[in-house]
Design goal:
The protein folds into two domains: about 160 residues, NAD(P)-binding Rossmann-like Domain (Rossmann fold, 3-Layer(aba) Sandwich); about 280 residues, Dihydrodipicolinate Reductase, domain 2. About 35% of the residues lie in helices and about 25% in strands. The longest helix has 23 residues.
């Protein structure tokens, strides 16, 4: 009873008593399964047309469920544009099996533990559910077959299975893709070499952070790489996805013949007991993390550098986790794509006030003509000369926060849900390419 009291305090402002879901064959009915990551709540940061406000939640009792409920409560009670979610919560042993049997909705949302996620995705698709799943779908190369089976099942049954790739909705990445795929500006994608790759990207995340105004308390299992995955297998999926999405947006690349892993290495971010206590609320490292505790510090293997080729084009990626971002900054994504006529580069350093900015070099009449055409979609976009390069000045109204990207992905998914055949064929091959690179990079780095 002691454990249940604080949970009830969180539930009461969010949900009414349990009721049968409203029957409406034309609306999406969400089912949230074990929301162990705050991304589950961010999907509910706003309401959507033709989505029922009543949501079924199946999860064990615990701090992760508490955090999810609290975030939804804050969305429901905020002053501006409050949401209206009504949560019907089911806890206890066998919660996942109960979800499969009850068929309480038609869309399952997964955002939490990664190790067993793909098994649950496959079972949900087999049961007739559509799936919106946070990255990563798999963290081990041994599960590539399960991933292929999930994609085949979705296609054969007319269901939609979608990976939450939020970073495609960042305006600098969108514009970089536009430049890279404009031959008169960019030329053709260069091939590069191991020493001078045609594509270089760097992603930096931080363990201590605030999300949607709430200090982030990470579950202890987050630091178990057997549960969450190493850096390249987890957040690295975004970076590999952006490489494919930007450079090969229409190509059905075959991961078995078109990808070649060249090198990979891994190294840990070190956490003291005090830091672990601050970011998890746990007094000490739990027993399952003992293999990675050395000299009183946790070796969290979250950093990966990988070099590979896609159809002969050389790419170099660095996936990094630091403790905390410098003041006035946050997570970082930087990338350069080199073509035969120009290079398009996203930078996010001190000179950019720690926000992503897009540069193209050299400046050219063809670039200015392209930006003039892009102004039809993004009025106010302009070119600012910076010596031999150009800075694309992006009006603030097109800059959307990371948290807001989840609603953008969800709206896109809902469009595919209404018409599964509208999901591009490219997405299926890209899923296999992305997870092949990410999981095989882990294998290669561990071998080194």
């Amino acid at each position: 009873m002691i454990r249940l009291l604080p949970l009830l305090f969180l539930i009461l402002p969010v949900a009414a008593c349990r009721m049968a879901p409203r029957e409406n064959s034309g609306e999406a009915r969400l089912v949230i399964v074990e929301p162990g990551h705050y991304h589950a709540a961010l999907i509910q940061a706003e309401m959507y047309p033709r989505v029922s406000p009543r949501v079924k939640v199946y999860a064990p009792l615990g701090p992760e469920l508490d955090d999810y409920l609290n975030r939804v409560r804050l969305f429901n009670s905020r002053q501006q544009n409050p949401t209206r979610w009504e949560l019907d919560i089911h806890t206890g042993p066998g919660f996942f099996e109960r979800m499969l049997g009850e068929r309480a909705g038609n869309v399952v949302v997964f955002a939490g533990r990664n190790r067993e996620k793909i098994g649950r995705i496959v079972q949900s698709l087999n049961a007739g559910y559509n799936v919106l799943a946070d990255k990563p779908w798999i963290i081990a190369s041994a599960d590539l077959g399960k991933l292929a089976a999930a994609l085949e099942t979705a296609e054969k049954q007319g269901l939609t299975g979608y990976d939450v790739m939020t970073e495609r909705h960042e305006i600098t990445s969108i514009l970089q893709k536009e430049i890279v795929n404009t031959p008169e500006v960019f030329g053709a994608l260069a091939q590069g070499s191991r020493e001078q790759p045609a594509i270089k990207a760097r992603s930096i995340h931080h363990l201590k952070k605030t999300v949607a105004g709430v200090p982030l308390l990470r579950p202890a299992w987050f630091f178990n790489i057997g549960e969450t995955g190493e850096g390249i297998a987890d957040v690295g999926t975004h970076v590999v996805d952006l490489v494919q999405w930007t450079a090969f947006p229409r190509d059905l690349v075959d991961y078995r013949t078109d990808i070649r892993l060249l090198s990979a290495r891994r190294w840990p971010t070190l956490l003291s007991r005090a830091q672990f206590r601050e970011v998890t609320g746990k007094p000490d490292f739990p027993a399952d993390l003992a293999p990675w505790v050395k000299d009183g510090r946790l070796e969290y293997f979250s950093n990966t550098a990988v070099s590979y080729t896609v159809r002969g084009v050389h790419a170099q990626l660095d996936i990094l986790w630091n403790w905390e971002a410098p003041p006035a900054s946050g997570d970082v994504y930087e990338a350069v794509f080199r073509g035969t006529l120009a290079a398009a580069e996203i930078r996010q350093g001190r000179a950019e006030n720690f926000r992503p900015e897009l540069y193209v070099r050299p400046d050219s009449p063809a670039l200015r003509k392209k930006v003039e055409a892009l102004q039809q979609r993004w009025p106010g976009l302009r070119v600012e000369a910076r010596g031999e390069e150009a800075h694309l000045v992006i009006p603030d109204q097109y800059r959307v926060s990371h948290e807001a990207h989840f609603a953008q992905v969800t709206r896109l998914f809902l469009g595919y849900l209404e018409n599964p055949r509208s999901l591009p064929r490219w997405e299926k091959s890209n899923m296999m390419v992305k997870y092949y690179i990410c999981t095989r990079a882990v294998d290669l780095a561990r071998g080194n």
